[in-house]
From TrEMBL:
Domain SGNH hydrolase-type esterase N-terminal: residue ranges: 28-173
This protein's name: SGNH hydrolase-type esterase domain-containing protein
InterPro entries on file: GxDLY, SGNH_hydro, SGNH_hydro_sf
Residue ranges constituting the SGNH hydrolase-type esterase domain according to the UniProt record: 184-362
Length: 366
């Protein structure tokens, strides 16, 4: 082996980066689809018990790409309480990791948070061979036996066909802590909304917000294909008990003219079903190339103006429950250091986004 091969063989040289091999642990395995587990983030789960973000047989025809992306499980969560000392997870994916700019841990992995609402802290991420579509991974082991609230976040950019929770045989399971109420916070948008390119699921900005606001969150971000189609407005309007609808889809608009058409119509359709539900319109975050491309910067300023004027006009006409947030401020002075490719946020970028949106969302909900 030459020096170059030796230096690049990190898994051989650093035991902390090796993938642990699951042994005969004697765990008992549970389906999270059964009580007392609670599956959050899938608005139509009861239809066919599928981990899918849109209805399997919608009344409105979905764009083909949106129909496919709805099988990505972004925003899904498994919530429960247990006194388990050990927890593992078995997963069967729809496909293997295949993205050049997003780690397999974010695209196809689960991560684990422990704690009560508002006090959840990261514990672990699944570790597995990224070439595989089925894996078993230890989330924690040998903890002191005590009751803990567990949240497992689903993969952001892959489908999950099956998932099983393994607990030590002496473990007891109870329901998760209750939400503040049954109303749901719905995010509709783009690849950024979906979670590209977080290193692990819990760092997508809607998931960060879900740890700060004790409500169920639905992530309806569709990578490259959240374009404000009226069909999606009709389908999203079917979701019962909405607490707030967040529209963050500017980045997928093919033109300013398209945004001028789709945004008022999307809001009109939704308002027909939910006349008083708060709606928050967020314009696009700053792209790295705006510093060097004046035309791009001006185009984004124009689109931001379209969204601001749409909201102002609706408010002038009596809609007091619609709001605008200037997304270009979210990354602040660190915008140039907060993306993986000039567009899609890193974990730092998502944290900055969540920090900016949190007080706005809390004020709207109050």
């Amino acid at each position: 082996m030459n020096n170059q091969q030796q230096s690049s063989d990190v898994l051989r040289l650093d035991e902390n980066m090796r993938i642990p091999q699951p042994g005969d642990s004697g765990l008992e395995w549970y389906s999270p689809l059964a009580e007392p587990f609670y599956i959050a983030g899938f608005g139509w789960l009861t239809e066919k018990q599928q981990y899918r973000r849109l209805p399997a047989n919608p009344a409105w025809v979905l764009p083909e790409a949106v129909d496919h992306l709805a099988n990505c499980t972004a925003g899904g969560q498994i919530r429960f309480t247990t006194n388990a000392s050990s927890l593992s997870i078995k997963v069967k994916l729809s496909g293997a990791a295949n993205m050049y700019h997003m780690p397999a841990t974010g695209q196809c992995g689960f991560d684990c948070y422990i704690g009560e609402p508002g006090e959840q802290f990261y514990c672990s991420t699944t570790r597995y061979d990224a070439k595989q579509t089925e894996y078993e991974s230890v989330m924690f082991t040998d903890l002191e036996r005590a009751y803990r609230s567990i949240t497992l976040n689903f993969p952001l950019y892959q489908g999950v066909q099956e998932v099983w929770i393994g607990l030590d045989p002496s473990a007891q399971i109870a329901p998760p802590p209750a939400y503040d109420n049954s109303e749901k916070i719905i995010f509709y948008g783009t690849s950024i909304t979906q979670g590209g390119c977080a290193t692990r699921p819990g760092m997508a900005y809607p998931n960060i917000l879900s740890r700060r606001v004790n409500r169920e969150f639905l992530n309806l971000g569709f990578s490259g294909n959240g374009k404000g189609e009226p069909e999606l407005a009709h389908i999203i309007a079917e979701i019962p008990d909405p607490a707030c609808l967040v529209l963050d889809y500017e980045a997928n608009c093919v033109s300013t003219e398209s945004l001028q058409t789709t945004l008022p119509e999307f809001i009109r359709i939704y308002r027909n079903k939910h006349p008083y539900t708060p709606i928050l319109v967020i314009s696009c975050i700053t792209y790295a190339k705006e510093r060097y491309n004046e035309a791009l910067r001006l185009e984004k300023e124009e689109r931001k103006g379209v969204q601001l004027r749409t909201v102002e006009l609706l408010r002038e006409n009596g809609d007091a429950n619609i709001y605008f947030y200037d997304g270009s401020t979210l990354l602040g002075e660190q915008a140039h250091e907060s993306t993986v490719d000039g567009v899609h946020p890193t974990d730092l970028g998502f944290l900055l986004m969540a920090d900016g949106i949190t007080p706005v969302l809390q004020e709207i909900l109050e």
